[in-house]
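>> received
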Amino acid sequence: MRTGTAHIVWDWNGTLLHDIDAVMVATNASFAELGFPPITLERYRDLYVVPVPKFYERMMGRLPTDAEWVVMDEAFHRHYWAAAENAGLAEGALELLRDWRADGLTQSLLSLAPHEKLVPLVRAHGIHEHFLRVDGRTGPSHTSKAGHLVRHMEALEAAGVTVSRTVLVGDAVDDATAAQHVGAHAVLYTGGSHSRASLESAGVPVVDSLAEAVAMARELAG
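>> returned
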């Protein structure tokens, strides 16, 4: 028997926040720190994977050393957070959040962005009130979402959120992997870090707009 209401766990970067331009600026800045040439958005989307050191391995032909990782990670975040100030919400995101909530359904936000940076940014966009909770990453940056989603879902239990009626909407194969790990559904959006071909390898619905993602979430959550 299904309990609770339909619930969406939203990803932030590349999903609700249209920040791919900032990501490309920061990625190429981090590569430049070690003398690597810049890459195109198309190549980035073809190669991107979480955890991020695996992405660098695809680019470099080997995993970065610990020293290289520190340099690249610091450079990426320094350039990203400067550029992200100009990033806006994805098309239709605000209206979709409002409508989902107005229908009496619930939603939350889970990101691998640092928690202390995520929360003020979500508030700055004026959408924090639509979420039962907002969780960013705590701990090291070379991680995947699965463990964070476990904790996120546990924290939502008190609000009556059930995993069987939860849909994670994200832009990365890692989002689908995390959803599978906890027994939730997933819908992947092509506006972020992955190519459509890469997303389709996850075996979950792939959409080209957040409106399609929400419609699919309604269907999956029942």
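>> The first helix runs from residue 20 to 33.
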